[in-house]
Amino acid sequence: MKPTRDDVIKANISLHTQLANVYKDTEPHYRTENRVRVENILSSLSRRHDQGSLLDVGCGMGFIIDIAKNHFSKITGIDVTQAMLDRVDPSPGFGEVTVRIAEIENMPFAENEFDIVTAYAVIHHLHSLEPAFREIYRVLKPGGSFYTDTDPNFYFWDAMRQLPDGGFYSGFVTREIDAVKHKDKELEEQFGVPVDVLNVAEILKHDGGGFKAEELERMLKLIGFSQVEVCYEWFIGEARVIHSDDTRHCACEIRKVLNEMLPLTKHLFKYLRIMACK
Fold it and tell me: In the chain, which stretches have pLDDT less than 50?
């Protein structure tokens, strides 16, 4: 039987409660090179919207909030897991910060309330996309921006799943295969998270294999977003390129060439980023 929305929410609460103490140490988006990338994006959005209000849905322990508080006048975060919210730093920067328990599909906010809505590494934790996207559209002001990031690219996942276990691969390809095929077992062994809990909490990744950029773009436009751009992010091996003194300067050029060769290269990017305007 397919899990219900309540099942997915309960699994996410269980998963993130268990991982709250180690989350920052295990999630790659806290690495410096990614924080710099995200700060550049949020800084650009802040300038576009005159340092207005930002809502971060599925805020976790405040990855986006910690960056956004230096760029926006008002920051609000929602999440379903109290253990994560308890670890958000509420101290203000440029703007005030508030957080609360709430579900993305049923948010306690008025229509047209926020200039920006962000959902960082969140949408693969949902039961279904359309209700969440419609609710995000509702709370955005006309002309407001919706930004998501670091959700799984279907074409990369599909490519990894088709590679047989035990083949002769380079180290970083082997790590990516393990991350796609065996992450649930790794979390169970390291942190005691039951396999079923992770698979239900990330049902759109584990059952659906992630997202297709063209399908996300189509759905968001049907909901009413006037401009939608879905970009491919983090080519396989990019971290290795960035962290090597010999190749660090090549990362931007490699990314540029791979993007110029799309759609032939779409299976080489791990994640998707959405930028949409109401």
Answer: none
Other beta carbons within 10 Å of 82 = 12
Query: Model pTM?
Result: 0.94
Interhelix angle for 171-181 vs 183-191, to 10°?
80
pLDDT 10s digits, 121-174: 999 999 999 999 999 999 999 999 999 999 999 999 999 999 988 888 888 888
Residue 276 φ/ψ, nearest 5 degrees? -130, 150
Alpha carbons 70 and 65: distance in angstroms, whole number = 9
What's residue 19's pLDDT? 92
Phi and psi dihedrals of 16, rounded to 5? -80, -20
Q: Which residues of 26-43 are buried (b: 16+ CB within 10 A; e: fewer)?
A: ebebeeeebeeebeeebe
Please, which residues have CB within 8 angstroms of residue 271's CB and are 6 or more apart in sequence?
A: 149, 150, 151, 152, 153, 156, 232, 233, 234
Locate the domains of the chain by residue range.
Answer: 5-153+197-235+270-277
Contacts of 139 (CB under 8 A, 6+ apart): 55, 107, 109, 110, 111, 112, 113, 114, 117
Is the domain 5-153+197-235+270-277 a CATH 3.40.50.720 member?
A: no
CB 232 within 8 Å of CB 272:
yes
Looking up tokens 């670890």 gives 87
Q: For position 92, what pLDDT does the model report?
A: 73
Nearest CA-CA partner of 53 in 136, 124, 140, 119: 140
Cα 96 to Cα 47: distance, rounded to the nearest angstrom: 18
Q: Which helix or strand (DSSP H or E) is residue 5 part of? A: helix 5-19
